[in-house]
Amino acid sequence: MTMHDADRPLDSLDRAILGLALEEPPSGLRSSILLATVYPAYRPAPPFSFLELALLGALGAVAVWFAALLILGGASLFVHTVTTIATVASSALSNGATLAWLAAGGATALWLSLFTVSQPVAHASHRSGPRNVP
User: What is the largest CA-CA distance in the chain?
Assistant: First the structure.
């Protein structure tokens, strides 16, 4: 036969806990909980966008891949892989036409970002605020 909490008598510890003075909750707690759960228009946006989550996932996958390389093949396989990646990157970037296209693209991006009059406000700073309700 088991005793439930409601069936057993209160001991001195239970009486001491029940006798503690509790602090009043903040005044807007109930309304903020309702706004965050019941009314989806006022729910704050997620802290990360899909692009940021994809980037974090890719970085995590690369970190796991490096860890697996070190565990499975040791340092020599890791060094060989990094050397191969560096060789391919340096051969691709040693082409003059590739460097010219990269420079032209970078200059275009810089020009557009500095001299475009109607730039949108950065969305990242407004991500946690309330959304506009129609």
Answer: 87
76-97 in b/e form (b: 16+ CB < 10 A) is eebeeeeeeeeeeeeeeeeeee
The closest of 49, 46, 44 to 33, measured between CA atoms, is: 44
CA distances from 114 to 66, 119, 123 (A): 38, 9, 18
Contact between residue 127 and residue 51 where contact means Cβ atoms under 8 Å apart: no
Cβ pair 56, 48 in contact under 8 A: yes
DSSP for residue 8: S
Segment 16-66, tens digit of pLDDT: 888 888 888 888 888 888 877 777 776 667 788 899 999 999 999 999 988
